[in-house]
Amino acid sequence: MNDGRGPLLRIAGASKAFAGNPALSGVDFDVRPGEIHALVGSNGSGKSTLIKILAGIYSADSGTLEMNGAVHDLRGFTPAAAHAAALRFVHQERSTFGDLSVSDNLSLGRGYETGPMACIRGQAVRARTQAVLTRFNVDADPDAPLASLPQSAQTMVAIARALQDQPETGSGVLVLDEPTAPLPPDEADLLLRALRRYADSGQPIVFVSHRLEEILEVADRITVLRDGCRVAVSGKGELDHDGLVELIVGGSVTGNGHADVARRQADPVLRSRAARGGAVRDISLTVCRGEVVGLTGFVGSGCSAFLRLVFGAQQLEGGEIEIGDAPARFRSPRDGVRADVAYVPADRASHAVFAGESVKDNLTVASVSRYWNGFRLRHAEELADVRRDMERFSIQAPSASAPLLNLSGGNQQKVVVARWLRRRPRLILLDEPTQAVDVGARAHLWQAIRRACDDGAAALVASSDVEELAQVCDRVAIVRAGRIAHEVDGDDVTSEQLVELLHSAGPAS
């Protein structure tokens, strides 16, 4: 980072309100050449609003943007103006295409090299693609399908596409929205190292992530937003994890801690013996009432597959699974639900929510039968329960009838978890439950899950976030190649120990 130079990008007094409710209030923000500037805050802090104003998607109510010496009024800032100002974006919802080649993905938007009769000059396209890949240190074949690359490399291709037409490195600002959210830890580390290289070569980067450890590792400066206001700007090394959390949520967040061993009831809720099916090759595991047990491993290890196996979404091909004292050879998820098993999948958008429906309907869809009286639905009782659950699970929404898609990702996830917990399940299966969820929402989610376990449920959590597992789990099993390679509990459940075991050889090999 070059602190001797002034900001390349400066935003002053950015404000935006929706239906009279302020989302952003007089925010100042600047980015210097060659720095990674992290923008953090809980869902609803104004972070997404600021990025959309930068991209010209939202028109601000007030404020100015200065870029390379040119001043723009944010009240009329458009996507075309953002592009002309050399602002480049890689959004969380990727616009790359896995079935197309790397060359095709880099050519989309900018166009192909053509010859007579507008025929595409394949060799010229390939040569230009190779030059771009070399410039951004992306190890990929121009002709390879994008989907064949590791996820981190696919992200770097998206970054290269955004920056390929810069006249020189650092002449524009790159904005990355949750680039590591879908990546496992090893792939995220590769991407972070690439971003550091880009910044060291002069490229300014605005970096948005809910993974605070990444922020503290890679960011040169951190701007914290809360309730639409800028509350802090800190340099590297000025904040630790707890200090950053306090700034984000506006107070201290106490850890959930591990369950008191003396309070745990030695009452197995889940027993698996040599369970096999799909990516699961041989898993034996017991989870008791009151416990939160974690599973972690690299992509394809079998953690997620084991949850699906227990729930009935994946057929058991061998071994045994028991829920309580009864054998569980579920033929479908419906059998799992009937056995009082809850399942929160990793892909919330595709498999867990009804985005076009209301908060109320999403909350009650798994328990709506309790409100039927003959042929009459007791709407008043249903609505009263929903309002109580919205308060209990800290679900922030304008009303119970608000469309779920209007809620932040963290609040949508609270709705999904609350939907299952209101059924009082005895076993809760959670797959990457806090992926792309802010720290405040995470705290509420884990408090709700721990509360359910204190009331007699058991939870089994598959996650790639070892820091979080170390904070919330009583035991953690390392899964490799469909088998449990290691298991740690008590004081041994630390992020350092989990990382070491993840990368070590183990019995499963």
Overall description:
The chain is α/β, with parallel strands linked by helices and 509 residues long. The longest helix has 16 residues. Helix 5 packs parallel to helix 6. The protein is built from 17 helices and 22 strands. The two termini are 43 Å apart. The chain is globular and about 70 Å long.
How do the strands and helices of this protein lay out in sequence?
Blueprint: E1 9-18, E2 21-31, E3 36-40, H1 47-54, E4 62-67, E5 70-73, H2 79-84, E6 87-90, H3 102-107, H4 122-135, H5 151-163, E7 173-177, H6 185-200, E8 205-208, H7 212-218, E9 221-226, E10 229-235, H8 241-249, E11 268-277, E12 280-288, E13 292-296, H9 303-311, E14 318-323, E15 326-327, H10 333-338, E16 341-344, H11 348-351, H12 359-364, E17 372-373, E18 376-377, H13 379-392, H14 409-421, E19 427-431, H15 439-454, E20 458-462, H16 466-472, E21 475-480, E22 483-489, H17 495-502
Parallel strand pairs: 3-8, 3-9, 6-7, 7-8, 13-20, 13-21, 16-19, 19-20
Antiparallel strand pairs: 1-2, 1-4, 4-5, 9-10, 11-12, 11-14, 14-15, 17-18, 21-22
Helix pairs in contact: 5-6, 14-15
Which short descriptors sum up this protein?
509 residues, alpha/beta, 6-stranded mixed β-sheet, 17 helices, single chain
Distance between the termini: 43 Å
How many DSSP E strands?
A: 22
Determine the mean pLDDT: 87
Low-confidence sequence ranges = 260-264
Helix content: 25-40%
SS summary, helix count: 17
Q: What's the arrangement of strands in the largest beta sheet?
A: 6-7-8-3-9-10
Radius of gyration: 24 Å
Q: What best-fitting shape do the alpha-carbon axes yield?
A: globular
Q: How much strand? A: 15-25%
Q: What kind of sheet is the major sheet?
A: 6 strands, mixed
**What structural class should be given to the helix and strand makeup?**
alpha/beta
